């Protein structure tokens, strides 16, 4: 049986399904655990992220109101908002770039790719009539001011400002279809269109010469009146009809400026087993629908090129601690792996993301309030690891194939070709199988059952064991 396994193993993914990836970015995000931490805590976090977890990309939400001077003022203070030197830069200065500079410098030092999302909340003075405060945060954000801030961010991280490292990847705003981040929702597609029109060329002109800019960063599920569904938002932002052809029916659509972005970012949360037909949803299961919309937008000349898709924020809640969800700790671990394997089979999807290392702490109040944050972490708020911590490091999915199974997996930590030994529960370890350069492997078994694998680095040193996975599909 193991001889057959070794022969069936697809080294370098040569036998990967048509349309599958050979590699995806492993994006990780936890602003609270980084931006709000001490320098020593940041260093320890980032070293674990890179060396033990095997992530290769850090997403940082750079929040405008945490950097801009006098963010609570109704009127704009006198300063050159496009000049990165006009903002405070001391490590502990607030508001200012200091904490972000330190995170980006340290992330660069440990070898992580950095994706900076230039986002809000907007300072009050950058909202219409100075109304953007409290429950009205991000009210009619001024696109010109956002463009000037984006220019300052891109110039600061161009590799030519002070001693700061260069950042190649930026995205524009976070979840513009969600009322928490852009108000009012009735105007948000038009507002975001204007913001992109100002910020995209500003980043292009001020960033490093090979800068790459993503748009979108959309919330995945429409929930009126707080969230415009992603499909409706795309149509209104990109001035597309219900048939996804060009239209001028929406506000500001006459004279539409073609968007010269380099990629499309999305947050494919949502139901894990289905795509609700009655809701406007683009969850991970519906990610190819997003590809269809982007292609139709390209055909309508709304984008200048065919855009790859980047999953830049994703996670799965667990119970415990959140008593309002049904996903157990073991189920969270399994789903994290299964969703990555699903994403892997769509080559247009260039990244898979994990939102949070640590759960958000419980909040005071009734259950709905207590667990209103995100409990998608790989560790509880206390720091104790969940089963998903190890599952993230060594993903494994077992799928039925005839009377046997196909085992897909990855050794995330390390670099270059690594190796695994696969074991059917109750049996002995199989022969060593080489991964591809990104740590992926796959193999067929003639017999079904539950499987796990032992992982080895490039020097054949054992570095861990995957969870035990049952067959699905």
Topology of this structure?
Elements lengths: L1 H7 L16 E5 L1 H4 L4 H15 L3 E7 L34 H13 L2 E7 L23 H14 L12 E4 L15 H19 L5 E7 L11 H8 L25 E4 L20 H13 L8 E4 L17 H16 L6 E5 L11 H4 L16 H7 L2 E6 L2 E7 L8 E6 L4 E6 L5 E6 L5 E6 L5 E4 L5 E2 L1
Parallel strand pairs: 1-2, 1-8, 2-3, 3-4, 4-5, 5-6, 6-7, 9-16
Antiparallel strand pairs: 9-10, 10-13, 11-12, 11-14, 14-15
Helix pairs in contact: 3-4, 5-6, 6-7, 9-11
Quick one: how many beta strands? 16
The spatial strand order of the largest sheet comes to 7-6-5-4-3-2-1-8
Shape: globular
Rg over CA atoms, rounded to whole Å, is 23 Å
Query: Which runs of at least 5 residues are low in confidence (pLDDT < 50)?
Result: 1-15
Query: How many DSSP helices?
Result: 11
CATH topology of the largest domain: TIM Barrel
Based on the structure given, which CATH architecture of the largest domain is correct?
A: Alpha-Beta Barrel
Helix fraction? 25-40%
End-to-end Cα distance: 22 Å
> Taking all residues together, what is the mean pLDDT?
95
Major sheet description? 8 strands, parallel
The percent range for strand residues is: 15-25%
Order of helices and strands: HEHHEHEHEHEHEHEHEHHEEEEEEEE
The SS-based structural class is alpha/beta
Integer tally of domains: 2
CATH class of the largest domain: Alpha Beta
């Amino acid at each position: 049986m193991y001889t057959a396994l070794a022969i069936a193993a697809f080294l370098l993914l040569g036998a990967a399904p048509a349309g599958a990836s050979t590699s995806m970015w492993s994006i990780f995000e936890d602003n609270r655990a980084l931006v709000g931490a001490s320098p020593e805590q940041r260093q320890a976090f980032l070293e674990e992220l890179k060396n033990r977890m095997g992530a290769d990309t850090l997403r940082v939400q750079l929040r405008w109101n945490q950097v801009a001077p006098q963010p609570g003022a109704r009127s704009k203070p006198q300063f050159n908002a496009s000049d990165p030197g006009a903002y405070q830069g001391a490590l502990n200065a607030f508001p200012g770039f200091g904490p972000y500079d330190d995170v980006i410098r340290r992330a660069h030092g440990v070898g992580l790719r950095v994706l900076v999302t230039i986002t809000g909340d907007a300072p009050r003075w950058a909202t219409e009539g100075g109304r953007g405060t409290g429950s009205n945060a991000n009210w009619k954000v001024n696109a010109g001011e956002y463009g000037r801030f984006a220019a300052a961010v891109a110039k600061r991280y161009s590799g030519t400002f002070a001693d700061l490292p260069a950042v190649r990847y930026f995205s524009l705003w976070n979840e513009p279809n969600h009322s928490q981040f852009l108000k009012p929702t009735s105007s948000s597609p038009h507002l975001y269109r204007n913001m992109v029109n100002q910020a995209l060329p500003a980043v292009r002109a001020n960033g490093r010469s090979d800068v790459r800019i993503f748009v979108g960063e959309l919330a995945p599920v429409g929930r009126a009146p707080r969230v415009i569904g992603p499909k409706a938002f795309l149509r209104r932002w990109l001035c597309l009809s219900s048939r996804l052809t060009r239209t001028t029916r929406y506000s500001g659509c006459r004279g539409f400026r073609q968007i010269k972005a380099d990629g499309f970012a999305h947050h494919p949360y949502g139901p894990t087993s289905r795509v609700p037909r009655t809701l406007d949803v683009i969850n991970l299961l519906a990610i190819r629908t997003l590809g269809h919309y982007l292609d139709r937008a390209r055909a309508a000349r709304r984008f200048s090129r065919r855009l790859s898709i980047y999953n830049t924020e994703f996670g799965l809640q667990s119970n415990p601690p959140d008593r309002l969800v049904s996903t157990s700790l073991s189920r969270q671990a399994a789903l994290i792996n299964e969703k990555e394997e699903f994403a892997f089979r769509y080559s247009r999807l260039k990244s898979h993301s994990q939102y949070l290392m640590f759960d958000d702490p419980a909040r005071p109040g009734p259950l709905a309030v207590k667990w209103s944050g995100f409990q998608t972490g790989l560790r509880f708020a206390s720091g104790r690891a969940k089963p998903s911590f190890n599952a993230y490091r060594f993903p494994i999915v077992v799928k039925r194939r005839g009377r046997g199974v196909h085992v897909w997996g990855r050794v995330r930590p390390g670099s270059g070709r690594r190796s695994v030994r696969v074991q059917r529960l109750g049996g002995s370890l199989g022969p060593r199988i080489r991964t591809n350069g990104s740590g992926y492997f796959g193999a067929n078994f003639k017999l079904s059952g539950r499987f796990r694998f032992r992982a080895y680095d490039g020097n054949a040193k054992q570095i861990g064991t995957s969870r035990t996975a049952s067959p699905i599909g």
